[in-house]
Amino acid sequence: MTPVYLDNNATTRVEPSVVAAMLPFFTEQFGNASSIHAFGAEVGGALKTARRELQALLGAEHDHEIVYTAGGTESDSTAIFSALESLPDRTEIITSKVEHPAILAVCDHLEKTGRARIHRIGVDKAGRLDLDAYRAALSDKVALVTFMWANNETGTIFPVEGLAEMAKAVGALFHTDAVQAVGKVPIDMKSSVIDMLSLSGHKLHGPKGIGALYVRRGTRFKPLIRGGHQERGRRAGTENAPAIVGLGKAAALALQHMEEENTRVKALRDRLEAGIQQRIPNCFVNGDKDDRLPNTCNVAFEYVEGEAILLHLNRAGIAASSGSACTSGSLEPSHVLRAMDIPFTAAHGSIRFSFSRENTDQDVDRVLDVLPGILEKLRDLSPFWAGTNETPKAFKPVYA
Amino acid sequence: MWDYTDKVKDYFFNPKNAGALAEANAVGEVGAISCGDALKLMLKVVPETEIIEDARFQTFGCGSAIASSSALTELVIGKTLTEALEMTNQDIADFLGGLPPEKMHCSVMGYEALQAAIANYRGEEWHDDHEEGALLCKCFGVDEGMVERAVRMNKLTTIEQVTAFTKAGGGCLTCFDGLEACLAKVNAEMVAEGLLAEHEAYRLGGTSQAVVKQKAREMRGFVKAPEEPKPAPAAAPMISLDQIALVPPPSSAAPSASGGLTMLKKIRLVEETIEEMRPYLRQDGGDCELIDVDGNTVKVKLSGACVGCQMSSVTISGIQERLAVKIGLPFRVVPV
Ligand SMILES: Cc1ncc(COP(=O)(O)O)c(C=O)c1O
Ligand code: FES
Q1: What is the second-level CATH architecture of the domain B6-121?
Q2: For the residues of B287-309, what is the DSSP string, one character each?
Q3: Could you give the C-alpha distances from A177 to A84, A194, A298, in angstroms and in order?
Q4: Rounded to a whole number, what is the distance in Å from the CA of A269 to chain B's nearest CA?
Q5: pLDDT, tens digit, 9 for 90 and up, residues B6-38
Q6: Is B38's Cβ below 8 Å from some Cβ in A?
Q7: What is the crossing angle of helices B144-154 and B159-166, to 10°?
Q8: pTM of the full predicted structure?
Q9: Lower CB count within 10 Å: N or C terminus of chain B?
Q10: Pairing of β A4-5 and β A318-319
Q11: Residue nearest to atom 14 of ligand 1 (CA)
Q12: What is the ipTM metric for this complex?
């Protein structure tokens, strides 16, 4: 039984051609790009090519607008600290309640240590940003606005371009965590007003531990990591050449497959979603159905607990993930679902299926084959199900 | 994922004694759907011998919750009620070859359900019915008795352990003081009874609340816990709502330290804000009523779906936030 991998928002398989592109940089081409000799020059050339490939994926005007980092988390931290340091007269940050911990934990820390005032903008039941609250929070005290491009749990897309324009109007810097968006939705930084953008290699079939921060030319910037002059002094440390080459290759492939992502992959997702809703009573889709990543499907199943579903799926060779409390070791369900006000009765049973271009129609069939049985089994065990059993059709959640 | 033993996995995938038991004459129900797990234990007790002839369960919860419930039924079948009452949650965990530490509350849930079922059989009131005052942790509906039993049975000596075994304190942590007092009290009793060495016992103030809070926040995905209780502004009068309706504001309610609002004005604003929120809470089957405003502390009574579960911590932080936005003052909202 071949495993079905539907957890691509957690991480993706490194594409074999990406691995092949990386390998020589562990062996023959081991040089340090900064060295003057032939060993270094070879690597330097490869890094340049890689940078161009990433530039193309982002539609960036200049290749030096890309600063390599050790991943999405470092890119996010760099953007936040850089903004606060570059605009010392401004001490406020605006972000949302549904960001990745790479943003939220930094903001919490800055708030706790008294270095910044944080506005955390809420979302509605579909995960859409509260624009009125955002507008009200904007002022000339705001150094940075940071909103994610697409949510990792629900796939909900924020209208970052418009949000960025609002931030620019008060002179704030605008950053977006686009870790989940890059490679899945077209991006063109040339025609954008976004100042900074984070991305991560391992979400687009590239290696882990490599990412980048796009910094628009002319944007005020202070490095997070100081030392050597790599990355024009914006991120010190000898370049992770194999990973950078891998990210470049992955970016080139992502650009090639962008259309497929939004047609074939999206169709797989839609078929799974429709199939689930057809076959399984008392479930609904979390997130903004109209403005969502093409690969993400997050479904809440009432009266069952997510971990129990995942354990059964895992036994059937299917990998997915859950916003349930039990899987994360916390006692409360995901902060994203709670910010969306998804009732606990359903938040505990929310499952995320995230596709990539490596998924097939058979994968969808496999899930649709086993999932109804799993739900039935678990609901039979559930003390809450018996009562609703007779009239599942009448179930009309106010929040769906 | 969790490091479950093969036995846990087996009892999860192939649960024994699952489903309703029509002839049950002893039923114990603990937990709630909003808390992430719930268990209904049904026993068939032979009246003459008090032997548990059959046991079934229905569980909403994660892998270890289902496995623990099933293990419990296996353990009690054939036992007399007296024997069953001697069982501890550790027996359930041992039967399964151990549970991950963070999942011990699943075994405690089983223990509690068994106690409740036997009380039900004997026509006694099970002391888990959350009567006024007994509820220690509102987020997870945990009463003092449950914490006491878990501490005693498992020799718990830290707040973190109490949370792992009972879930109490896993949410907003407004219950911290209560948990601490309860843990210290039971530990002291255990020392006196020779069950615990003096140096092992938990002492009041033995945990920095800030550290636990921070940890809880991290675990919960960085949701802000309510503000530390701020000392109420000097001489802030205690006014209850009916007083406001009937009598003019007391003279001491001249512009107070907090934001230049009179106490009465402040209460009115608080009242308005909460009224505005009620329709939303009702939509989700809950409700919230303003009980008192004391300085910057707002006391509310939660009811319906808001009670005894994590909904309350969300509701509480929601109200707190609305108040901060509408009135521009930091309030501490406390469920009473
Ligand atoms: C939205 C978002 N931001 C940031 C990250 C962190 O990226 P990395 O794992 O490369 O540090 C992730 C990945 O988990 C993510 O989904
Ligand atoms: S965690 Fe105990 S009352 Fe909220």
Answers
A1: Alpha-Beta Complex (3.90)
A2: EEEEEEEETTEEEEEEEETTTTS
A3: 17, 11, 20
A4: 25
A5: 999 999 999 999 999 999 999 998 887 767 788
A6: yes
A7: 110
A8: 0.78
A9: N
A10: parallel
A11: A10
A12: 0.82
